[in-house]
């Protein structure tokens, strides 16, 4: 096991100090290997030292301007700090450099959506779900984006799939309830909202929606 592999093992165990030592030794042994700098940056990011982490990622790009993972890692830093425009640029660079992963498409799509570019975000979120069908969080964000673009039927299918994958996903129940109400299926919408509240009794929006549906049913 080389030092990079050893460092990753320590990271998985949460042993940041030993991970840092292993990656530092990897850099000393091969200072022209961008992977070691990225790994060291990941340790720094994990312990909250984003400023130093950024320098290590930038060093990796200096060594290899096509290091897609370095761009992705910088994007993660910006995303974590809610700098979505900068994050979007980095995720786009990672994609152009060949990183075609579910995570990169998901974060690129989510960044675009947070910047108010929902229509542009849709294909990236869709691709993220296609690449990792079991990623319920990605599917939920995709469903929200569909809903924001008023693609009601498509959003409904995705929210349905979310609750199939995770029967305790209260927000998915809530939004599915709204979609069903919009489509006129008031009885099931009410039932779905009740499920959301059973899972999360303090879900204020679900409470409000359920109350509105109850009033509608009483006056109809």
UniProtKB/TrEMBL annotation:
- Any coiled-coil ranges, and where? none
Q: Which Pfam families match?
A: TPR_11, TPR_16, TPR_2
Q: Does the keyword Repeat apply?
A: yes
What SMART domains does its record include? TPR (SM00028)
Keyword field:
Repeat, TPR repeat
Q: Which domain of life is it from?
A: Bacteria
User: Which InterPro entries does this one have?
Assistant: TPR-like_helical_dom_sf, TPR_2, TPR_rpt, Ycf3
The TPR repeats extend over 3-33, 34-67, 68-101, 170-203
The yes or no answer to whether the keyword Repeat is present is yes
Q: What is this protein called?
A: Uncharacterized protein
**What is the protein's species of origin?**
Neobacillus cucumis
